[in-house]
């Protein structure tokens, strides 16, 4: 379990760092749509090279391939696109708060669809993580119902991504094979979407492409892979709670690199999220059952009788 928690924390740190350096792209003429596209596109040759080097099998059963298509396009891509699109309609703080409700959505979905059970420790940790996220995020004007809808869709899609990775056993696939197919399906889908009005501007300064490569490595190669391993080792519900470390890492990197202000509420929120992780880590010691002298005597007598027989 400890290794799964470490993997999920690393994924949260990677996801938290990527939005901070993405601002460099936006300030230099980039846009979210192009960033999402190049994030997946750059990972195709990188992941394929590793797959070929490791001599991994790319052929998968048709049923498993269809599941991969749905998780890649219907979950990963939809979550990324709708989250970035929501920023254009509502305050990013509101959008982020809605998106980070995905652990709640995940628990509800697992209860309704898969009839899973949830223990008290997970519920308490979930409450702390949600309270921490709400404390970190600064709420502004809602701005548009459409923006709220985009943020909800993003949260729902990411919940399904985590849940289906576990339930469909996709987390058991080789990590690089998984990443390769997700990158291919998402890239092809965005190319098909271009005639529908989704603009992708590939004419970017070289600095933007370098930053986008870093974002691709952080979000796809590090974030997605470590999160996938976290889901495999911990399960989707516990991994979703621990991944709430992402807002904390985003705050730390924003303060260090962008000199963003750190308020008391953000510190309290960070403490709440760390508390949630510690609750999941805590394992009560099992009490040793002492055998009474009377019981010991009875056992000894029974053993003697059995030996006589």
Q: How would you sum up this structure, described in words?
A:
It comes from Erysipelothrix inopinata. Keywords: Membrane, Transmembrane, Transmembrane helix. The protein has 309 residues and is mainly alpha-helical. The protein is globular. 75% of the residues lie in helices and 0% in strands. Helix 12 crosses helix 13 (264-281). The model is unreliable at 303-309 (pLDDT under 50). It has 14 helices and no strands. The protein has one domain. The longest helix has 29 residues, at 206-234. 45% of the residues are buried. It has helices at residues 2-27, 32-41, 43-53, 62-86, 92-99, 102-112, 120-136, 145-167, 175-193, 206-234, 236-242, 245-257, 264-281, 293-308.
Describe the protein's topology.
Elements: H1 2-27, H2 32-41, H3 43-53, H4 62-86, H5 92-99, H6 102-112, H7 120-136, H8 145-167, H9 175-193, H10 206-234, H11 236-242, H12 245-257, H13 264-281, H14 293-308
Helix pairs in contact: 1-10, 1-12, 2-9, 2-10, 3-9, 4-8, 4-9, 5-8, 6-8, 6-11, 7-11, 7-13, 8-11, 9-10, 10-11, 12-13
Radius of gyration: 23 Å
Span of the ends, CA to CA: 48 Å
Largest sheet: none
Round the mean pLDDT to the nearest integer and report it.
80
In total, the number of strands is 0
Low-confidence regions: 303-309
User: Given the helix and strand composition, which structural class is it?
Assistant: mainly alpha
Strand portion, in percent?
Answer: under 5%
Order of SSEs: HHHHHHHHHHHHHH
The proportion of residues forming helix, as a percent range, comes to over 70%
Supply the number of helical segments.
14
What best-fitting shape do the alpha-carbon axes yield?
globular
* Number of separate domains: 1
Q: What does the oligomeric state look like here?
A: single chain
Protein name: DMT family transporter
Keywords: Membrane, Transmembrane, Transmembrane helix
Family: Belongs to the EamA transporter family.
GO cellular component, one term: membrane
């Amino acid at each position: 379990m400890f290794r799964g928690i470490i993997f999920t924390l690393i994924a949260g740190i990677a996801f938290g760092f990527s939005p901070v350096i993405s601002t460099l792209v936006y300030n230099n003429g980039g846009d979210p749509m192009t960033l999402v596209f190049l994030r997946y596109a750059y990972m195709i040759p990188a992941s394929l090279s590793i797959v070929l080097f490791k001599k991994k099998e790319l052929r998968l059963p048709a049923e498993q391939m269809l599941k991969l298509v749905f998780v890649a396009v219907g979950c990963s891509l939809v979550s990324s696109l709708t989250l970035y699109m929501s920023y254009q309609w509502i305050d990013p703080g509101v959008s982020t708060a809605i998106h980070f409700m995905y652990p709640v959505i995940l628990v509800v979905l697992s209860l309704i669809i898969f009839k899973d059970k949830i223990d008290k420790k997970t519920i308490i940790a979930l409450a702390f993580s949600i309270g921490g996220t709400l404390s970190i995020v600064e709420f502004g004007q809602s701005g548009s119902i459409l923006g709220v809808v985009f943020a909800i869709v993003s949260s729902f899609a990411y919940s399904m991504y985590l849940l289906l990775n576990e339930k469909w056993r996709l987390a058991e696939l080789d990590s690089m094979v998984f990443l390769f197919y997700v990158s291919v399906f998402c890239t092809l889908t965005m190319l098909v979407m271009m005639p529908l009005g989704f603009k992708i501007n590939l004419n970017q300064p070289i600095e933007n492409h370098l930053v986008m490569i870093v974002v691709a490595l952080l979000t796809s190669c590090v974030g997605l892979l470590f999160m996938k391993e976290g889901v495999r080792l911990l399960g989707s519900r516990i991994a979703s709670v621990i991944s709430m470390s992402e807002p904390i890492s985003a705050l730390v990197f924003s303060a260090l690199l962008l000199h963003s202000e750190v308020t008391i509420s953000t510190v309290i929120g960070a403490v709440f999220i760390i508390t949630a992780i510690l609750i999941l880590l805590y394992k009560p010691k099992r009490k040793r059952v002492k055998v009474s002298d009377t019981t010991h005597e009875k056992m000894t007598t029974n053993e003697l009788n059995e030996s006589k027989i």
